[in-house]
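Narrative of activities, Objective 1.

The group set out to show that a structural description can be obtained from nothing but a protein's sequence at a throughput compatible with the screening campaign. Below is one input-output pair from the validation batch, recorded exactly as produced.
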Amino acid sequence: MIESLLIVSAFLVGIGLYIAISKRNFIKIFIGIEILATGVNLNFIALSVAKHYQFIDPLGHAIVITSIVLDGVLVGVGLALALVIYRRFGSLDVDKIRKLRW
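Output recorded for this entry:
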């Protein structure tokens, strides 16, 4: 049970890292970061169960709930930032936005 959760968590973290590193679109990079955060949250839950087999450690759950709240804030700020970038530059391509500096 715990091993399968850790494998899924590692798979999600790997997919999130791949998407965040390889893509050039701001929205796709943002989705990759969210997938990575989901994998990390799942890892916290799996390890809080693995620590003691007779009960579940509430610290892992408290960290995950805090992370979910912060991810919600990140989604709001990230989408607002994407909207402002698209209105200002007309594109969400990270390379084009970097070239438009000074």
